[in-house]
From TrEMBL:
InterPro entries: PCD_sf, Pterin_deHydtase
Catalyzed reactions per annotation: (4aS,6R)-4a-hydroxy-L-erythro-5,6,7,8-tetrahydrobiopterin = (6R)-L-erythro-6,7-dihydrobiopterin + H2O
Organism the protein comes from: Marinomonas fungiae
GO terms for MF: 4-alpha-hydroxytetrahydrobiopterin dehydratase activity
Protein name: Putative pterin-4-alpha-carbinolamine dehydratase
Spans through the membrane: none
Database matches in Pfam families: Pterin_4a
HAMAP family according to UniProt: Pterin_4_alpha
GO biological process, one term: tetrahydrobiopterin biosynthetic process
Highest rank taxon of the organism: Bacteria
EC nos: 4.2.1.96
Amino acid sequence: MTYQKLTSPDIESALEQLNSNAASHWVIEDSKLTKTFEFRNFQQAFGFMTMCALYAEKKDHHPEWSNVYNKVSVQLITHYVAGLSDKDFDLAKQMDVFANGA
């Protein structure tokens, strides 16, 4: 499947849909889809990262992220289109699912 860079109106619409869930607070920062997840402890944060890593590998779409104790900061961008694509919003949605199950 080929992905294309989303237009600004498409990004706004996708972001609004993604954030329609009260627990979701994604923002656009530095032209990237960005969120910081907070967990009860390191074990939960690392478990979340493990689930996300397996999903990201399956989808061949890898996040820019970092972990400090119970926080995981994520930035998503589709490098080969030099911007945001549906791939980023799909991964963000799945990350929210994993975070709610952690």
